[in-house]
TrEMBL record:
It comes from the Bacteria. This is HNH endonuclease.
Length: 102
């Protein structure tokens, strides 16, 4: 990216994603639920981890499959408000439940 191009904005916390900050692509419809090749959004890795800590893939596919819907989810809205006060390169372990991978 050149100096004139603004950093991309995370669709969950609405903070910029500067180069070198941990980031990942989130499939709006999970790959295992038919989203392979579907729309993705670039976001901070910490925000992506929080989405998957809060919601299962069936819930994501069925109800929480847009950035607007994700920001409206109660847990994710609280997280976004909290992390928005941190610098764009902030990272932390995601608290809360862990889903088992069987």
């Amino acid at each position: 990216m050149d100096a004139d191009t603004p950093d991309p904005i995370c669709p969950l916390c609405l903070r910029p994603i500067p180069p070198g900050v941990p980031q990942s692509l989130h499939h709006l419809i999970p790959r295992l639920k038919g989203g392979k090749g579907g729309p993705t959004v670039l976001m901070h890795h910490i925000c992506h981890r929080e989405i998957h800590a809060a919601l299962g893939e069936a819930e994501l596919a069925r109800e929480w499959n847009t950035p607007e819907a994700l920001r409206a989810h109660p847990r994710l809205a609280r997280f976004a408000a909290w992390v928005a006060k941190r610098p764009p390169d902030f990272t932390s372990k995601v608290p809360g439940r862990r889903r088992s991978r069987r």
